[in-house]
Amino acid sequence: MGPSYNTGEKALLQFYNGGNWSTVGLATMIGLLTPLGTMLGFDCAVHMSEEIRDASDTLPRSIFWGVLLNILLGYLAVFTLCFTITDPSAIVDTPTKYPFIQLFYNITNSYAATNTMSAITIIALVSAVIAEIATASRQVWSFARDQGLPFSSFLAKVAPRFPIPLNAIIVSFISGVVHLAD
Q1: Cα dihedral angle (45, 73, 18, 96), rounded to 10 degrees?
Q2: 158: alpha, beta or left, given left = phi > 0 and alpha = psi -120 to 50?
Q3: Could you count the other beta carbons within 10 Å of the beta carbon of residue 11?
Q4: Which of 18, 105, 137, 139 has the fewest CB atoms within 10 Å, counting from its CB?
Q5: Could you tell me if residue 6 is left (phi over 0), alpha (psi between -120 and 50 degrees) or otherwise beta?
Q6: CB of 89 closer than 8 Å to CB of 16
Q7: HSE-CB for 68 with a 13 A CA cutoff
Q8: Higher confidence at residue 83 or residue 39?
């Protein structure tokens, strides 16, 4: 990681209102929406609990350790960013059009490290999307199994070749693509 550029007072006590919101408090609350998203994925495991062996023991442990790991790594990342970003406007107005790529380059000063860190980020995001589609498909399958959706007999089928609700997965994927295109 790069050296600390900001003082502790600037990094931890000074707020930046780059969106020109009416108050710094409103800018702070809106800025908290993005990290809040990291807390939304833990319910994925709950929705798939029917497929977990010994779910009453395994599921709480996996959620606990997932939350703990996210807290530790999240604080490490936030403090690193607070101390190393000296000019937020330069990060946002990057020629790459992706501030996180510019941020990685500013911290490492290496194209190889920037590409590696960007690839890790993209792989993590793609993995999260796959987990969300799996979760949505299990919810569709559960509702269809209980005759709670139109075309329930189609959606509730479990593929004979694979022990997964393939029809529900396909419908969930298509609805996600349609939502993304909207």
Answers
A1: -90
A2: beta
A3: 19
A4: 18
A5: beta
A6: no
A7: 6
A8: 83
155: closest CA among 141, 174, 170, 175? 141
Please give the pLDDT value at position 2. 46
- Is the CB of residue 73 less than 8 Å from the CB of residue 35? no
Q: Residue 113, by phi and psi: left (phi above 0), alpha (psi -120 to 50) or beta? A: alpha
Global pTM reads 0.70
Number of helices (H) and strands (E) in the chain: give both, helices first.
Answer: 10, 0
Residue 69 tokens read as 């790991």
Nearest C-alpha neighbor of 92 from the set 23, 4, 17, 22: 17
**127-148: burial string, b at 16+ Cβ within 10 Å, e else:** eeeeebbbbbbbebbbebbeee
The count of residues in the chain is 182
DSSP-based three-state secondary structure for 174: helix
**CB atoms closer than 10 angstroms to residue 114:** 20
